[in-house]
Amino acid sequence: MKQQLEKLGFSPKESDVYLALLELGTAAVSDVAKRANINRSTTYIILDSLAERGLVSTSENQNIKFFSVTPPERLLQYMQDLVKKNTELVGLAHNLLPELKSLYIGVGPKPRVQFFEGTEGLKTAYEDTLTSKETIRAYASIENMHKAIPSYFPEYYQRRTKQNIAIRAIFPDTVEARERIKHNKEESRESLLVPSDKYAFSPEINIYDNKIVFMSLVEKFALVVESQELADALKKVFELSWAEAKNLNKKHGSKNKQKTG
């Protein structure tokens, strides 16, 4: 039950205090602290916080403050109120978006660098690629992508395709890559495979519009660089890589290339 409460947003100590009071019924802070195995001052702060959320009620008897858990249905109502409030905040953010975007664009041509960490940081970087107004150029390792964020793909591919954002990608030739490129047409992808014994790599690079996104899928961080000059240069480097990857395919008699059709 404690784990379920934590999924609802309770901290571990809040869960302990809430469950202790639920078992005690009505109790003074010292009794709750003892049952929850948390010091008295911390327990008092937590009880006040739960009371502010309407999950705990208070009463006094002989100048002693007592606490009781409100009916469990109140917890459901609290979560429903929270969802409603967050929905309203999402609407507010949506209304603010045009103005925020105008300010964001108004930064001007000065290069901009953003750093993101962890799994959520990688997701943020991938989500930014869905703003692309042109075909994305990418160096990527399929197995490292799927290993880093296993629950994110292929739903990301579907959303990219739905938004009519195509991609040209160079992959190391692996079993996972060969399996993925079978879906090239339905995922708006054109790809080339390069020998993994010579050209294996784990980081990913995406180039689109005025941006270059560098992602370490092993160390889990992303660097988004906004610079038209650098983006244009790396697009040319990619075209050289693409041409050489084609030559490698021809040289080895490979039929690795899969077109979108």
Automatic annotation (TrEMBL):
CDD domains recorded: HTH_ARSR
Superkingdom in the source lineage: Bacteria
Pfam families xrefs: TrmB (PF01978)
Protein name: Transcription regulator TrmB N-terminal domain-containing protein
Residue intervals of the Transcription regulator TrmB N-terminal domain: 5-73
